[in-house]
Amino acid sequence: MTTPPPIRRRGLMLVLSSPSGAGKTTLSRLLLEEERGRLEMSVSVTTRPRRPSEVDGRDYHFIDLPRFEHMVQRGELLEWAEVFNNRYGTPRDAVESALSAGRDVLFDIDWQGTQQIARAARRDLVSVFILPPSYEELRRRLTTRAQDSADVIAGRMAKAADEMSHYDEYDYIVVNEDVQESLAQVHAILKAERQKRERLVTIADFVSALRG
After folding, report:
1. What is the pLDDT of residues 194-211, one digit of tens each?
2. Residue 108's domain is classified under what CATH number?
3. How many domains does the chain have?
4. Which of 114, 125, 188, 204 has its CA 20 to 30 A from that of 197?
């Protein structure tokens, strides 16, 4: 009897979006720890200044505006957006290399970037929007993390309502009241999406061998 060949899977792009402070960065970090070796973070390029806790090449690739514009002109970015007067973008080649090798890529991007990815590669995209349990809780989280000035926090709160209006453009919604429960929900989404028939690129060969 013929032994079925291993099933080769194309990777997927898992996008987590939310208003600033709703928890997507924390959920991304925990998911990467839980999925170590199976899921990798997409490292964006950005023109914003580096925060003291951030490492160039790990958190972002920090570049100047002329270089960013050069990458846009050459089509080297899968998506890009301007947020709070700073630009963010995803290098295309690194993502495609991972997907072709069967590795999943996690994106911590906003709705603008998600729209662009959906236009460019909808079949590879799995999008999840993270909502806070309340507007008051969102304000509390932004204030207690103590990374931004009062003016910046006010700007982020003003932007949150607009960002949340794009929830219906996403495949899945998670209300992040409890981090561990939200993590379990995102993990379940990822686990199910990995088994979608269209991602199993050699499934026809596998079934053919099973049928003899």
Report:
1. 999 999 999 999 999 988
2. 3.40.50.300
3. 1
4. 114
